[in-house]
Design a protein that fits this description.
The complex is a heterodimer of chains A (268) and B (283). Chain A is an alpha/beta fold. Helix content of chain A is 39%, strand content 26%. In chain A, the strands form three sheets. Chain A has a six-stranded mixed beta sheet with strand order 8-9-10-3-11-12, with helices on both faces. Chain B starts with 12 loop residues before the first helix and ends in a 5-residue tail after the last helix. Classes of the chains: A alpha/beta (268), B mainly alpha (283). At the A-B interface, helix 2, strand 8 and helix 3 of A face helix 9 and helix 10 of B.
Chain lengths: 268, 283
């Protein structure tokens, strides 16, 4: 069996006295699309932010492409990596934020080119062609010279996905990418994510879009109170959930949101 | 039940709609306006007939000593502002640092330099030789402090380092106005802290910082007049030197005032241009 693209062992994270992640262990094979579900405060966003190295876990290992993230062995101890190393590692994981976080003083095109040109030191002329192709892929070729303030939420999020893809990451991390959007834009963003999933990139998606999870994910993680309560292939998760907490969550969420409605929006 | 005489019925609509628009006489505005105009006329008249020889004002407006003073004023304002911005940037970063030592050092600096009058700071720099008769500069050698602390350098340090304390607070507010998500997005695409600062955070912080910085620069132009007391040959100092000789005090003060006003007036459109440049992407 090949090594997983990402694996975690005994990951712990606290904020002050609140224990958010209580020992997460996990293997994600390359190319797998994983959706992380769970109630608020279950630790799903924190888990994603630890993998993106926006938070530092106090215990445990995160390994991506065979490299320990954020720390290294030095004279028989585990020490934190230097800032330059961490910046290099972060490039391997593309992060998409709930609130887009586009750079407001740059156009859509400049946002996408910023990473490859400024961080990877690649030639602007080469990068521009790729960036335009990425904009076309997310359906926004005609918005290349627009500033974020001139774009709708859904358009901004699609530019943000293109910005993350521009660094050719081996793993894409999505932190509730549609939670801040109006219902009309959700479908466009999910369609782009579906396209990314189909291209074979390993994906971790924290989401509340059950219809999306059901349709696109290979595997569902259900988090509750800082642990992974249920970890199952997508079909099994929705048809035969094991845990009572999972069943309660599913019936509560599905009860309020008929799945056909959101399904219709994703199918192109 | 009686209907009041002013009761409007639907039949009256056409009558009112046909009336042309008129203008209410604002008696309050009119009287206060007339009063202000009279006051203004009186002040202008007073200055016109007062003991001011206006021909002297015109005569001294462009003499070389005054023009040299103007350029010295502007040079000092630009240099001191540059020093203030440079030092202020680091102070602001120190203030926002995650470790306590830079925070405390910046805090003490701001407290000290904002708490002591500028004129006193200028005098201390100018008289530094009384504390340290000799100064060792690595690579240059030892110098007598009196030779080193020229009026220019004393004024630059006094005005610039004092300004840094104020600019630090402006920059701090600027940095804090940038959303935390911008720092995260910058690091997510693999930027180091320095690169994120330069490419992402500073351009956005500048947007909020330019109007107050413009005000600080205007203040600085006027503040340079204080350097006249430590013999820095700026415009007020040179005007004073002239009136010590010819006793045309008010005329030369008006000459100096004219140049300060002109410099400050030119600043406003410049500030506007800068604001426009950094407002990129703002709707």
């Amino acid at each position: 069996m090949t090594e997983p693209a990402v694996w975690l062992r005994d990951l712990h994270k606290s904020f002050g006295s609140t224990h958010i992640l209580k020992g997460i262990s996990l293997d994600i094979p390359a190319g797998q699309v994983v959706c992380i579900l769970g109630g608020s405060g279950s630790g799903k966003t924190t888990l994603l932010r630890c993998i993106a190295q926006l938070e530092t876990a106090e215990r445990g290992l995160i390994v991506m492409n065979g490299e320990i993230l954020g720390q290294q062995e030095h004279k028989g101890r585990m020490v934190r990596r230097n800032a330059h190393d961490i910046a290099r590692q972060r490039r391997k994981a593309g992060m998409v934020f709930q609130r887009f976080n586009l750079f407001p003083h740059m156009t859509a095109l400049q946002n996408i080119m910023e990473g490859p040109v400024q961080v990877q030191k690649r030639l602007a002329t080469d990068v521009k062609q790729e960036a335009l192709a990425l904009l076309d892929r997310v359906g926004l070729a005609h918005r290349a010279d627009h500033y974020p303030a001139q774009l709708s939420g859904g358009q901004q999020q699609r530019v943000a996905i293109a910005r993350a893809l521009a660094l050719k990451p081996s793993v894409m991390l999505f932190d509730e990418p549609t939670s801040a959007l109006d219902p009309e834009s959700v479908g466009d963003v999910l369609a782009v994510m579906q396209d990314v999933a189909a291209s074979g990139v390993t994906m971790l998606v924290v989401t509340h879009e059950l219809a999306f999870a059901r349709q696109v994910a290979d595997r569902i993680l259900f988090m509750d109170n800082g642990i992974i309560l249920e970890d199952a292939p997508t079909t099994d998760f929705f048809t035969t959930p094991r845990e009572d907490r999972t069943k309660a969550f599913l019936s509560a969420v599905l009860g309020h949101r008929p799945q056909q409605e959101t399904c219709k929006e994703i199918t192109p | 039940m009686s209907i009041p005489a002013s009761f409007i019925t639907k039949n009256d609509a056409s009558h009112y709609l046909a009336l042309p628009a008129g203008r209410r006489v604002a008696w309050g505005h009119l009287t206060s306006g007339i009063f202000l105009l009279l006051l203004l006329a009186w002040i202008i008249h007073a200055f016109a007939v007062g003991q001011i020889a206006w021909s002297y004002v015109g005569q001294f407006l462009f003499v070389p000593a005054i023009l040299r003073g103007v350029s010295a004023t502007l040079l000092m304002a630009v240099c001191a502002m540059g020093l203030g911005m440079f030092a202020g940037l680091f102070l602001a970063l120190g203030r926002l640092s995650s470790s306590w030592l830079p925070r405390v050092v910046s805090g003490i600096y701001v407290w000290l330099f904002r708490g002591v009058p500028v004129i006193l700071q200028l005098l201390i720099w100018f008289n530094l030789a009384l504390i340290f008769p000799h100064i060792m500069i690595p690579g240059v050698g030892t110098m007598r402090t009196v030779d080193l602390m020229t009026p220019f350098l004393s004024a630059l340090l006094g005005l610039g380092l004092n300004q840094a304390a104020y600019i630090a607070e402006i920059f701090r507010a600027g940095f804090q106005s940038v959303d935390i998500g911008q720092y995260e997005a910058a690091s997510a695409i693999g930027m180091t802290r320095f690169k994120a600062m330069k490419r992402i955070i500073l351009p956005q912080a500048f947007r909020t910082v330019i109007p107050p910085l413009g005000n600080e620069f205007i203040n600085m132009i006027k503040l340079t007049s204080l350097a006249s007391i430590i013999q820095y040959p700026e415009v007020l100092h040179n005007a004073e030197n002239i009136y010590y000789a010819n006793t045309r005090v008010i005329e030369l003060l008006i000459v100096a005032g004219f140049w300060y006003l002109l410099a400050v007036t030119v600043m406003s459109p410049l500030q506007h241009l800068l604001e426009r440049h950094f407002a990129k992407g703002k709707r």
